[in-house]
Amino acid sequence: KNEVEQSPQNLTAQEGEFITINCSYSVGISALHWLQQHPGGGIVSLFMLSSGKKKHGRLIATINIQEKHSSLHITASHPRDSAVYICAVLRAAGNKLTFGGGTRVLVKP
Amino acid sequence: EAGVAQSPRYKIIEKRQSVAFWCNPISGHATLYWYQQILGQGPKLLIQFQNNGVVDDSQLPKDRFSAERLKGVDSTLKIQPAKLEDSAVYLCASSLGGDRNYGYTFGSGTRLTVV
Question: What average pLDDT does chain B have?
Answer without folding.
Answer: 89
